[in-house]
Write a structure and sequence with these properties.
The complex is a heterodimer of chains A (910) and B (171). In chain A, helix 9 runs antiparallel to helix 16, helix 13 packs parallel to helix 33 and helix 26 packs antiparallel against helix 27. The radius of gyration of chain A is 34 Å and the shape is flat. Chain A has 910 residues and is mainly α. Chain B is mostly helical. Chain B contains 7 helices and no strands. Chain B starts with 6 loop residues before the first helix and ends with a helix. The chains are: A mainly alpha (910), B mainly alpha (171).
Chain lengths: 910, 171
């Protein structure tokens, strides 16, 4: 069919017009419309025939390509892919391919044998080369790299070419050997033998470094040892040239840094350095790290961290933060072979040597492989090492000075964490207040933190959470060395504990905060009063800090007890003493958390009054206001909540200016109120304003920004804009998984929204998996039942209702109702709604009597709390009518129907 | 189709390649071909990549657009290569297992469709993209509407016309 764009437009117009007509009328129509243009007419008629053909076959795709692979979708594609992989020739140049040696991210390696000389070689092919220039480039780079390296311990490049079908390959030295660790285990090598082999590995790596090549994928399977003990380094597939201008460190977003990042899936996580997993610049130090891990495995027979079964996010967290046991502790199980024998002193040296090489901070590792070799020689020669263990003698001030930027960032996190978002999102303002107050009250620590905070560049603000965690762990080590100054030690522990809590490391925070409390109690003497008011205030602070931690752990009874203890301890202090006010705020928050809103309100109001009465109210004042606003919010008093939020927002604006993250949080709180009032458009506007501020302050890749996106997504979903919601949710989820790991409340919250969007869009599979993961997270992070667990189950139940999987729906709603009744109240709105839905699940199973009982119970709970026309009550009325009719009580059934009709008509009028 | 993908697409594709390939492998092995739609598969790939910290396009939807393009390339290249192998050396291995036989039968279809789509792109680029997204990416009309920024009713008209044209073109 001959067409150009213009004619195609005309043909289409006629085609659509003809489709509007009855088939019998089309011929006449076309005769008139096309006039003398017989070609056009023939084309339109062909199109109409084509349309009829493709329409009668059912699905358009299937009809178009009756036996098409497209009907099979991806399975067809998969077969095509795998078929292609098999299609290598039998022969490449003088080599006959005899077997597959291995398959990796970049290609396949086959063994080639020469018939003429009997020689062998390894031949590496790039799979699916035509598809991606990037992959071709990387393959060519590996080839160039190998060509540039000339060392007895690095496999040599012989030849390189391209197959007729365009597949590039190169031929290199074949090494008949065992992977490093298998070799050592096989020969049951002694400690000295092991270290000598390791030294040879280091030399090979050092040779590459001398040619400015970083290997970046060092691991046992890439180091083959021949029977004679000589070894070869293989696989420079993700190596990089140190002086490659495209790979300079500090490349900004979208720059070369991203390129490195795309290598992630190709690496082997066990040997990857923290900076590699985080996508940060790599260098010589990256290979030094991998060598450290190799040494660890050589010494102990196992890898330093057990990364089995972890998700990539968990791996990144573990590698970045989890300290491996010292090699000397692990040698007992060394490879099942004989114990490596060495003196205690020698093992202590090996610990230092190995852990220096694999230090999490690149700056603290050996700066070159040569340095590592030198210390190996020192050890083998009985000389003292150059490396020193981390010195623990620093004082707190020194710690902070050295880590200036990190601590500044941490303070930003704490100060700016401000108010809270609503509903399912975890609320941390009290934790923030506690940590902040700690910072303010801690003599020296406060001094340098504030100095750093004010002196720092606020625009540089965003905190790298992972780095901060590392700094905190180092701070903990330093604190341990402050035995002689228990007061400073306690301050440091308390501050670090507060930061850890803020970052979700609750167990770790628990141990630090508890230690701080113990120290402060002993400083304050028996009754907690002997050390003077300052000591009592410190004890009160510590009690309150632990109370906020218990809230995060959902151990609410303990939280309440601790907060009350804090108030009692502070009772000797002036009423507006910060410690007393803080205790009051925290108690109010605990009461709010357990749903005792009426008790929480006067406690919080008193705290607010106390702060307001102070000459300098401080940032705790708006924080307490926000807490009070939240209490009213949860109690459903949206007007009160709204006006308190506005006051808090004004206070934050006055204190910090219009673009501070606390202001962003305040706006988000205002949005949450609008949302609850059903004003989704206004909620969206407030959320967007808040998000813009948080984005400007923290950047896109930050937990605060992510959780704001989740809120915004909910408002979008309620406006039936699922695609926009989905975009924000996937951004939020990506950030949260990366920064917070998979088991975190924020992740649960985002998964919940994702599930709701999916449910609304009818994607039940995604909805189910989202809610399941959400439930799993809550089950794991809360020690005691929490109403969020009920939300997860109730939403899961909704999916099953939709999917008509009635027994599963029943089970989930039953669990939800029990959880709500236990954690909130038997007469709470959530309990009522869950029971109404449980009634629906029973009704569909024709268990009429049980259904009627549950629907009625739920109805009685919900109806005093809401408008009569809410959908829950209307479905309860319909269900009750249906159940009673089935039970033969027609009068009752009619009564419910009439009631439903009356409410509906009233709502329409009103 | 364009001879080489543009830079952005290629970067994403390289990142996605291993994951897509792995998924494809598990589908071909019959593990879950019955239950998993292309949409679900690609969605899964996207989440995995996002979780691994690989730079991904802004949204699953954009990722699926890219995956659609990638799938088309994969299929076409595979088909071309097999045909080249058959015409070329007599020593090319011939496997007669069913999967291969089926795939070979489909090579012509893939190549014909690819060619037809390239022609259609010259007539109306939007229609060509629409077909690519639907056939190779399993995207729904609503999703494509969001991606291309046009109304669904327009796309329904486009779809019907493009489908008819392809039916004629592929005879």
């Amino acid at each position: 069919m001959h067409l150009d764009p213009d004619r195609w437009q005309r043909a289409q117009a006629l085609f659509h017009a003809a489709l509007e007509l009855a088939p019998g009328d089309r011929t006449d129509f076309l005769a008139v419309a096309c006039g003398a243009d017989g070609e056009l007419r023939a084309q339109v008629e062909a199109l109409l025939a084509g349309d009829a053909r493709s329409a009668e076959g059912g699905t358009p795709t299937g009809a178009l390509l009756p036996d098409g692979l497209l009907a099979g979708g991806l399975p067809g594609a998969a077969r095509a892919l795998l078929g292609a992989a098999a299609a290598l020739p039998e022969r490449v140049g003088p080599y006959r391919l005899t077997r597959l040696l291995g398959r990796g991210g970049m290609g396949e390696v086959h063994l080639g044998e020469r018939d003429d000389t009997g020689g062998v070689a390894a031949i590496k092919f790039l799979r699916d080369a035509p598809l991606s220039p990037t992959r071709r480039e990387r393959f060519a780079l590996e080839q160039r790299t190998l060509a540039s390296l000339d060392h007895p311990s690095i496999a040599r490049l012989y030849d390189a070419d391209v197959l007729p079908d365009g597949t590039p390959y190169f031929v290199m030295e074949y090494v008949d050997g065992l992977p490093l660790t298998e070799y050592l285990a096989f020969w049951n090598s002694s400690l000295t033998e092991r270290l000598r082999v390791f030294r040879a590995v280091c030399e090979a790596v050092q040779a590459a470094h001398r040619q400015a090549v970083i290997h970046r994928d060092l691991k046992p399977s890439n180091i083959l040892v021949r029977a004679d003990g000589t070894l070869k380094l293989l696989d420079f597939g993700i190596a990089k040239q140190l002086d490659d201008p495209a790979e300079v460190p500090d490349a900004g977003p979208g720059g070369a840094g991203d390129r490195t990042r795309t290598l992630l899936p190709l690496m082997t996580p066990a040997y990857a350095a923290p900076e590699q997993l985080r996508g940060e610049p790599t260098g010589i130090y990256t290979d030094v790290y991998a060598l450290g891990v190799l040494l660890y495995e050589i010494l102990t027979g196992r890898q330093p961290l057990d990364l089995q079964g972890l998700t990539p996010g968990e791996v990144e967290t573990a590698v970045s933060h989890q300290a491996p046991p010292r090699p000397s502790q692990m040698r007992a199980g060394a490879g099942g072979g004989r114990l490596l024998s060495a003196s205690r002193g020698a093992w202590a040296e090996l610990d230092v040597l190995c852990l220096t090489a694999m230090h999490k901070d690149p700056q603290r590792r050996y700066s070159t492989v040569q340095g590592l070799i030198r210390d190996l020689d020192n050890f083998l020669g009985g000389e003292p090492l150059d490396a020193r263990p981390d010195t623990l003698g620093y004082r707190a001030a020194k710690f902070v000075r050295r880590n200036a930027r990190g601590v500044a960032a941490a303070v930003v996190v704490v100060l700016a964490g401000a108010a809270t978002v609503a509903f399912y999102t975890a609320r941390l303002s009290a934790a923030r207040t506690a940590a902040l107050a700690e910072a303010e009250r801690s003599g020296r620590i406060q001094g340098f933190m504030m100095e750093l905070f004010q002196g720092g560049d606020p625009a540089a603000g965003p905190a790298d959470t992972l780095r901060v965690l590392t700094l905190i762990e180092r701070g903990v080590q330093e604190a341990a060395a402050l035995e002689a100054e228990p007061a400073v030690q306690a301050e440091l522990l308390a501050t670090l504990g507060g930061l850890l809590q803020r970052m979700g490391s609750l167990e770790r925070a628990d141990s630090l905060l508890a230690r701080a409390l113990t120290l402060r109690r002993s400083l304050a003497g028996g009754g907690g009063r002997e050390g003077g008011p300052g000591a009592a205030a410190d004890v009160a602070k510590s009690l309150v800090a632990l109370a906020t931690l218990r809230v995060d752990q959902a151990r609410l009874e303990e939280a309440e007890a601790l907060a009350r203890q804090g108030m009692a301890t502070a009772s000797g202090l002036p009423r507006d003493h910060p410690a007393a006010l803080e205790a009051r705020t925290t108690l109010g928050r605990v009461l709010q958390e357990v749903g005792r809103y009426d008790e929480a309100v006067p406690v919080l109001e008193e705290a607010v009054r106390g702060y307001a009465a102070r000459a300098e109210p401080g940032p705790e004042y708006p924080a307490a206001l926000t807490e009070l606003a939240n209490t009213h919010f949860y109690a459903g008093r949206y007007d009160a909540s709204d006006s308190l939020n506005r006051v808090a927002l004004a206070a934050y604006r006055e204190r910090y200016g219009a673009r501070h993250p606390t202001v962003g949080d305040g706006l988000i709180n205002l949005g949450a109120v609008q949302f609850q009032r059903g004003r989704y458009r206004e909620a969206e506007a407030r959320y967007r304003e808040g998000l813009a501020i948080l984005l400007a302050h923290y950047g896109a890749d930050h937990p605060e920004t992510a959780s704001a996106r989740t809120m915004l997504a909910r408002a979008l979903n309620y406006q039936e804009r699922p695609q926009e919601a989905l975009e924000h949710l996937s951004l939020a989820l990506g950030t949260q998984l990366r920064l917070l790991g998979p088991v975190h409340r924020d992740v649960a919250s985002t998964r919940n929204e994702l599930g709701l969007v999916a449910l609304a869009a009818g994607d039940l599979e995604l909805a189910e998996s989202s809610f399941r993961e959400m439930a799993d997270i809550y089950d794991r992070i809360y020690d005691a039942p929490h109403w969020f667990m009920g939300i997860a189950r109730s939403n899961l139940g909704a999916v099953y209702l939709e999917a008509e999987r009635w027994p599963e729906a029943e089970a989930r709603f039953r669990e939800a109702a029990e959880l709500f009744a236990a954690t909130l109240a038997p007469e709470d709105l959530n309990t009522g709604v869950a029971r109404i839905k449980l009634g629906r699940a029973l009704l569909r199973q024709e268990r009429w009597r049980e259904a009627a009982a549950e629907s009625r119970a739920g109805y009685d709970i919900v109806s005093p709390l809401t408008e009569p026309s809410v959908s829950w009550l209307q479905s309860a009325r319909a269900d009750l009518a249906e159940a009673h009719r089935a039970l033969g009580d027609e009068a009752e059934a009619r009564r419910w129907e009439a009631e439903a009709e009356r409410v509906r008509a009233e709502a329409e009028r009103g | 189709m364009e001879p080489t993908p543009n830079g952005e697409l290629d970067a994403h594709f390289s990142a996605a390649y291993e994951e897509l390939r792995r998924l494809a492998g598990s589908v071909a092995a019959g593990e879950r071909a019955v239950t998993l739609s292309p949409t679900a598969l690609v969605g899964e790939a996207y989440l995995k990549l996002a979780r691994a910290g690989v730079p991904t396009p802004d949204s699953p939807l954009h990722f699926r657009r890219i995956a659609a393009r990638a799938m088309r390339q994969v299929l076409v290249e595979a088909a071309r290569r097999r045909r080249a192998a058959k015409r070329g050396s007599a020593a090319a291995p011939i496997t007669l297992d069913e999967a291969h036989a089926v795939a070979t039968g489909r090579d012509l279809e893939v190549l014909a469709l690819d060619e037809a789509l390239t022609e259609l792109a010259a007539l109306d680029p939007r229609q060509a993209r629409l077909v690519e997204y639907r056939f190779f990416g399993g995207l729904e009309i609503t999703e494509i509407a969001a991606l291309l920024g046009v109304s669904e009713s327009t796309l329904h008209r486009d779809w019907r016309a493009a489908r008819a044209w392809l039916a004629v073109r592929l005879g």
